[in-house]
Task: inverse folding
């Protein structure tokens, strides 16, 4: 009887060990402190408090998993947007590649300026110039071909100041934030003014965000048969601009429900932040570029990522302003 | 020693039982035969063979989980489209509700015909009439308000022939197919010519498909402030028609990658089926409405869901044609 009892105890003990190991394995993600590249400032606390509230069943801030939608602007929020947008660097390179087939570009802005390295001259083309540039560099091929062009460009194109690949210019604290939200049941989306098909080839690798969770500006595509093979041709026609007031419209169109978390860094995110925080428990954060040493310091006067109105209203609207210099231990993964 | 050995054996046995129970629990979804409302015909076999191949690691047909995207047309593929589209029934009811505010409708098609019960007269408005109808009944309110209007309509509106709620007019075998695909790691989408915001309020409940996995036609929305509260207003302007050649374009725009499985029932799905099956392992199926007793029998001559060209080419293109009468044990859940 003593042996049998001891044996039962050992069975119980071995089962308890098995259960413990299973539980410990399942929860290992929670064992380490979240957001390791964030300093222990109020910004981090506010984020963690919000996320904890959304997952605390029975609590006032609880949100069911299917409604845990988080949206992130891309340029200046997830990766650098200085000295100009990544997609603009791509467009510049495309202009240089395509120039031999377009002699007329030598006398037409913005192409002339781009080819002569005179960006200020190129900027004189204004909004019409930007439309011309997008249509000249982003259309006139199939979607598959454009995907290849973009993927090849990202494989080698480098940032003009750091000499790092553009794909290395992502913010480590934001990648940690994406991971942290997903570990807590959030579905993470990009909502960017950038072209949706420019971002999709790299978002999974850079941010863990699959193509179907990227919302962006679109140009029209047209179904056609190439030698009887169905393809989609990219037309030189901007279809939807997912920027400013277009961001809530884009979210509504692509996702079909309102996020509870939104991150941006410029006035182009203002309407999105307003819309998301108009209903509870909407949480909004603004990345404020305050670190001229490790990245760039800019806000109200910047040509790219101008942050003015949203910064003025942030405090009253209870939007978290993240001070990159003070709140982030590390900005880029490649930093020492 | 004998006792200790027996004890070890019992520990091993109890662990094996624990593991067995865990495994059995995890795989209980596979314990029952899939697609119970399908007859044991070639159609069912082809679907099951395809799905098994996509999940068999190391096999020739294996597809990684993230690429297991399946798209379904809605009208005539997931729910009935006769004697007219569900959304048209909704539009008719909206016209009747709004008529007192629009005396001009008494002399203008398609409104006149709708109000007088003269659908043939209404149809004389042609394509322009349809656009007018959509814009008159689907715009001029916020997205939240439209969501409420649609939800309320679905709660009570009934099919003119069966007297069942429109939401009961879904095909049970197709709901089983959606479940079966999801149980095998597929992400299921609707890709419909219908309005995306007309479908989203009910797709989760009817099909287990969340709002962000519904692709459809869109009308433009505009961000605005109502008493300083941000809203999206639905404008009387059709933005994108997700039908025919628009379906591959819509998939590319919303999802950003090509599905490996597509189901449709009419020539409006033709380009989608061509595009999906242009690359391996693309699988396509067509629901052929052959059951005039239990549902409706129609194809080449139908005003709604005309199936002609796609039916002609199905065999040569290796598209599975599902014969509703022969292949489905039950069409609607409410059948005896």
Result:
């Amino acid at each position: 009887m003593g042996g049998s009892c001891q044996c039962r105890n050992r069975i119980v003990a071995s089962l308890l060990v098995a259960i413990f190991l299973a539980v410990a394995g399942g929860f290992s993600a929670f064992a380490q402190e979240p957001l390791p590249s964030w300093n222990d400032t109020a910004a981090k606390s506010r984020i963690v408090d919000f996320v904890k509230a959304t997952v605390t069943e029975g609590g006032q801030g609880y949100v069911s998993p299917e409604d845990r939608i988080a949206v992130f602007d891309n340029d200046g929020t997830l990766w650098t947007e200085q000295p100009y947008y990544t997609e603009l660097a791509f467009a510049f390179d495309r202009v240089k590649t395509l120039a031999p087939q377009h002699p007329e570009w030598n006398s037409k802005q913005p192409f002339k300026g781009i080819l002569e390295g005179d960006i200020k001259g190129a900027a004189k083309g204004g909004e019409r110039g930007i439309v011309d540039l997008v249509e000249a560099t982003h259309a006139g091929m199939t979607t598959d071909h454009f995907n290849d062009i973009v993927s090849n460009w990202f494989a080698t194109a480098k940032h003009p100041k750091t000499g790092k690949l553009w794909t290395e210019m992502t913010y480590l604290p934001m990648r940690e934030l994406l991971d942290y939200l997903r570990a807590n049941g959030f579905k993470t989306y990009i909502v960017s003014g950038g072209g949706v098909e420019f971002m999709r080839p790299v978002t999974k690798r850079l941010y863990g965000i699959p193509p179907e969770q990227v919302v962006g500006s679109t140009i029209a595509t047209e179904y056609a048969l190439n030698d009887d093979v169905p393809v989609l041709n990219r037309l030189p026609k901007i279809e939807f601009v997912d920027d400013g007031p277009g961001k809530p419209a884009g979210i509504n169109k692509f996702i079909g429900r309102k996020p509870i978390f939104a991150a941006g860094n410029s006035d182009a995110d203002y309407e999105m932040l307003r819309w998301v925080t108009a209903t509870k428990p909407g949480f909004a954060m603004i990345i404020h570029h305050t670190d001229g040493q490790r990245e760039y310091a800019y806000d109200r006067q910047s040509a790219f990522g101008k942050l003015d109105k949203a910064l003025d209203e942030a405090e009253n609207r209870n939007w978290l302003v993240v001070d990159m210099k003070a709140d982030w231990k590390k900005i880029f993964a490649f930093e020492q």
